[in-house]
């Protein structure tokens, strides 16, 4: 009988181990989920852009029966200030807002109203002061759903 050295036995064992690892069966990748189990895409219409627009803005101190306001460049210290906003179009829960700013940049008042309309409409935002309005120049700015709308109006309180 032939003697085998311990080194040769280790060498044969190492070669055998490498051969086994190289022949290891590859596991298949998991199959993707069948499309039938995925929810079908929902074709929802995109939210409609507001079909409402501001057609004019005027500032005055009195409103007629039809809500129109005669524009005034000068108001009195005891007057109520009416910012009249004419809109046209269709809207559901649209917010029209007005901000009065005094000549030094200080906000003198803010008002808003919710509109649900189809067609032309006038919305009056009324500002009143328990004290006299400070004399000076003011600016009325209007927004529709948070976006500037219409022309800013400047007026003076004397």
Core attributes:
single chain, 158 residues, mainly beta, 1 helix
The biggest beta sheet is recorded as: 7 strands, mixed
* C-alpha termini separation: 127 Å
Structural class: mainly beta
Mean pLDDT across residues:
81
Helical segment count: 1
Shape: globular
Low-confidence stretches: 44-49
Percent in strands: over 45%
Helix percent reads: 10-25%
Number of strands: 7
Radius of gyration: 38 Å
Q: Which H/E pattern describes the elements?
A: HEEEEEEE
Give the gist of this structure.
This protein has 158 residues and is mainly β. It is 11% helix and 46% strand.
Question: What order do the helices and strands come in, and which of them pair?
Answer:
Elements lengths: L5 H17 L28 E10 L13 E2 L5 E22 L4 E12 L2 E7 L8 E9 L2 E11 L1
Parallel strand pairs: 2-7
Antiparallel strand pairs: 1-3, 3-4, 3-5, 3-6, 6-7
């Amino acid at each position: 009988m032939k003697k085998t050295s311990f080194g040769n036995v280790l060498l044969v064992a190492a070669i055998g181990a490498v051969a086994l690892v190289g022949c290891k069966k590859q596991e298949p990748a998991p199959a993707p989920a069948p499309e039938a189990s995925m929810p079908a895409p929902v074709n929802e219409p995109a939210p409609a852009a507001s079909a409402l627009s501001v057609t004019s803005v005027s500032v005055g101190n009195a409103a007629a029966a039809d809500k129109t306001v005669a524009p005034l460049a000068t108001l009195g210290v005891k007057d109520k200030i009416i910012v009249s906003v004419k809109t046209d179009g269709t809207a559901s829960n649209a917010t029209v807002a007005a901000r009065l700013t005094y000549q030094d940049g200080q906000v003198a008042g803010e008002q808003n109203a919710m509109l649900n309309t189809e067609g032309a409409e006038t919305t009056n935002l009324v500002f009143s002061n328990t004290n006299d309005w400070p004399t000076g120049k003011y600016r009325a700015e209007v927004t529709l759903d948070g976006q500037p709308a219409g022309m800013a109006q400047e007026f003076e309180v004397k």
